[in-house]
Amino acid sequence: MKKHNFNAGPSILPEFTIENTANAIRNFNGTNLSLMEISHRSKEFQAVIDEAEALFKEILDIPAGYSVLFLGGGASMQFCMVPYNLLEKKAAYLNTGTWANKAQKEAKLFGEVVEVASSKDANYSYIPKNYEIPSDADYFHITTNNTIFGTEIRKDIDSPVPLVADMSSDIFSRPVDVSKYGLIYGGAQKNLAPAGVAFVIVKEELLGKVSRAIPTMLDYRTHVANGSMFNTPPCVPIFAALQTLKWLKQLGGLRKMEQINLEKAALLYDEIDRNRLFKGTAAIEDRSIMNVCFVMNDEYKELEPKFLEYAVSQGMVGIKGHRSVGGFRASIYNAMPKESV
User: Fold this and answer.
1) Options 138, 170, 190, 219, the catalytic residue
2) Are residues 6 and 327 in contact, defined by beta-carbon separation less than 8 angstroms?
3) pLDDT at 110
4) Any idea which architecture 253-331 has in CATH?
5) Phi and psi dihedrals of 309, rounded to 5?
6) Which residue in 2, 3, 43, 99 is the catalytic one?
7) Alpha carbon 306 to chain centroid, angstroms
8) What is the DSSP string of 135-196?
9) Strands, DSSP E only, in 204-324?
10) Which residue in the list 138, 166, 170, 219 is annotated as catalytic?
């Protein structure tokens, strides 16, 4: 039976990515060596990382003055690397969910942190509005898509201070005006590649401004200077990311991807709103197009286990909601085909 992979992450990847990566694991680029055992210093792998960086910049239309890095440690490592490199006196954070909260907690180890707004009062079911970003903050941090609660910031914010964004789960789902951001980071295991690599897009002029000493591996300047090759990079996830970027380009880029994603999300949200059995858990104006969270209406609550059982019988995987919200969550990332929705 065909599986419909609604996992929130690690999640569905394009067949193009899976097939090409599997082939390279057997025989990379005609070398008769596996991608898992080649030297990261070989000219063949250097070509991979160079092309991945170039496509990253092309597809996202990244302006001059920014570096693209491929780093280990996942997005969670960035929770500390961001303040280590950028927080001198004060940072501002928007608290929109579990991961935003974790990022904020790490920043408090490095200096004063101002929580400009939070939606915790309503179990993170909406994105706060009308907050004020302190103009004396070193940066303002947002989490654009909240996988657990199904909310998303889909507009590029105008910030009076450098804007830092965790885009782990909605990168490449829509066009982004990178020039409005000082730094964008994310784990790969949603829309890009298998877990094991994190991406960082950083405006180089922001670096080297803090007075603290930064350990070599945690200093962005180390990785900028060495083209993400200071130490052995995660070769397999970077190769997989390159395949996904090629797939995106062939598809028609981010405008086309956004159109497809909006259609898929509308299909599912329209049915949730129409069907008396269900209701969405996120504020309508803040609904994520990546993670659709819903529960059964109160009078049908007892049917939730039956519905889950039915979904599994139809080949649906990962449809159960996070324990913080309950109910159901359909993660409909870029690679999710419309037929599964």
Assistant:
1) 190
2) no
3) 98
4) Alpha-Beta Complex (3.90)
5) -60, -40
6) 99
7) 32
8) TT-S-EEEESEETTTTEE--S----SS-EEEE-TTTTTSS---GGG-SEEEEESTTTTSSSS
9) 278-280, 291-296, 316-317
10) 166
Tell me, yes or no, if 247 is annotated catalytic: no
CB 53 within 8 A of CB 252: no
**pLDDT < 70 stretches in the chain:** none
> On the CB side of 171, how many CA atoms lie within 13 Å of its CA?
30
- Please report, for the chain, the start and end positions of each structural domain, with discontinuous segments joined by +: 15-251, 253-331
Confidence at residue 2, expressed as pLDDT on a 0 to 100 scale: 87
Strands 112-118, 140-143: pairing kind: unpaired
Amino acid letter, 204: E
**pLDDT value at residue 1:** 85
Q: Is 99 a catalytic residue?
A: yes
Nearest to 115 by CA among 99, 96, 130, 89: 96
Identify the helix (H) or strand (E) that includes residue 157.
none
Q: 43: exposed, middle or buried (C-beta count within 10 Å: 0-12, 13-18, 19+)? A: exposed
- Name the CATH code of domain 15-251 (choices 3.40.640.10, 1.20.1600.10, 3.30.470.10, 3.30.429.10): 3.40.640.10
Q: How far apart are the first and last CA of the chain?
A: 16
H/E element holding 247?
A: helix 235-251
